[in-house]
Each structure stands twice: as C-alpha cells, then as structure tokens.
Amino acid sequence: MNEVVKQMVEKGEMLPLMEEFYTIQGEGFHKGTAAYFVRIGGCDVGCHWCDVKESWNANLHPPTETTKIVAAAKSYSSTIVVTGGEPLTWDMTPLTTQLKAEGLQTHIETSGAYKLTGIWDWICLSPKKMKLPTKEVYDHAHELKMIIYNKDDFRFAEEQAAKVNDNCILYLQPEWSKRDKVVPEIVDYVMKHPKWKVSLQTHKYLNIP
C-alpha cells in the first residue's frame, strides 16, 4: 500500500472493501427488508464462531474510494447496511456523510469495540466478550443483538443489557452451528424474560446471502 492510499484509508476516504451486495436483511429489527450491504474488511475481535473469518485481515481486501462505494450503493437501495469485519476499525464519517447527502438510510452492525464514528440511522450493537463496547455506543445503540453459543452467554447478555439505553431493543440470536441446541434454550429464556426477543438468521433459512 503506497503512502497516499495509506493516508486515505486512515482518514476513511478509502476503506478495505471485502464485498457489497443487495439482499434481504435477515436479522434483528429490520429482518425481511431489502438492503444493500457493504462489508468492510478488518477485525481483531476474533470470535471463534465468526462465519466471515475471511474478513479479519484488512490487507486481503482492496482499499476502495468511498465515493465509489456510495455510487454503487445508491443505485440499489435506500437502506445501506455497513458491516464487517468490524467497520468501526475505520473512520466511518466520510462514508456516512456521503450516504446521507444522497438521502440514504445508514445502518451499522458492530461489536462496538472501537470509537463510534459516522452518522447512523440505526445501530445494531453485538458485543463480544473479548473486546467490550465503548460507553458511547451503548448510549446510542438502537438494538442489542446477543449471540448465544452456550449457557454463559445468557449471563453475558444480561450484563450487556444493563449497559444500553432504555430504548434499545433486546435480541437473543442462536449461533448458527449450535442452533438445534440453543434455540429451545433461547425460547424458554425469552418466555421467562419477555424484555428479550428472539432473532434468527432468516437469510440462512431462506438460502440467500
């Protein structure tokens, strides 16, 4: 990476773009709605069950000008979901400023482990034990999505729910490879603790990206 490109990436004017695609949002509050996804490379949170480990190494994904990302996005949808990897590894301000200038809705899916940058209409916070979220993202999250892999994750979910703002919607979502085991546990838990809702990866059931 030459010095000019490196500086542009550091400023968020270029981002390591892994992939971008138009599909149906499969999870959380906006499930079932069409959206354009922008997957940004780079993540050191390191969830062992991550289903996009190929996103972790930012160097594998070409630095792409945010103007090009926005031009592609606006031709597909009015709702743009920025995901990763961990998108907040990078400064999201240039990307979201341009998306908002085009009148687009900006959503992010994040672990919240890094400084909250960007202008967001919807923040889906999915905390991980290895690197906890910043206070700022707890305060601004619209939904809390807790991935349930084992029984200790219910304890962690409650710990995280105590930190988010009062308007944040609470979701428990089974880790895909453990779904047969943990779905009944989640259903039972939500029935006993109705402040939570069940989230499923419906796009996987529908066999779409």
Structure notes:
There is one protein chain. The chain has helices spanning 3-11, 66-74, 93-101, 135-140, 152-161, 179-192, 202-205, and strands at 14-24, 34-40, 63-65, 79-84, 105-110, 122-125, 143-148, 169-174, 196-198. With 209 residues, it is an alpha/beta fold. It has one domain (3-205): TIM Barrel (Alpha-Beta Barrel), CATH 3.20.20. Strands 3-1-2-4-5-6-7-8-9 form a 9-stranded mixed sheet. Helix 2 packs parallel to helix 3 (93-101). One of its GO terms (biological process) is tRNA queuosine(34) biosynthetic process. Pathway: Purine metabolism; 7-cyano-7-deazaguanine biosynthesis. Homodimer. Residues 30-209 form the Radical SAM core domain.
Compact summary:
The protein has 209 residues and is α/β, with parallel strands linked by helices.
Query: What gross morphology would you assign?
Result: globular
Mean pLDDT reading: 93
Question: Rg to the nearest angstrom?
Answer: 17 Å
Number of helices: 7
Strand content: 15-25%
The CATH topology name reads TIM Barrel
Number of domains: 1
State the name of the first-level CATH class: Alpha Beta
Measured as a percent range, the helix fraction is 25-40%
Pfam families: Radical_SAM (PF04055)
Binding site for S-adenosyl-L-methionine: 49-51, 85, 126-128
Family: Belongs to the radical SAM superfamily. 7-carboxy-7-deazaguanine synthase family.
Function: Catalyzes the complex heterocyclic radical-mediated conversion of 6-carboxy-5,6,7,8-tetrahydropterin (CPH4) to 7-carboxy-7-deazaguanine (CDG), a step common to the biosynthetic pathways of all 7-deazapurine-containing compounds.
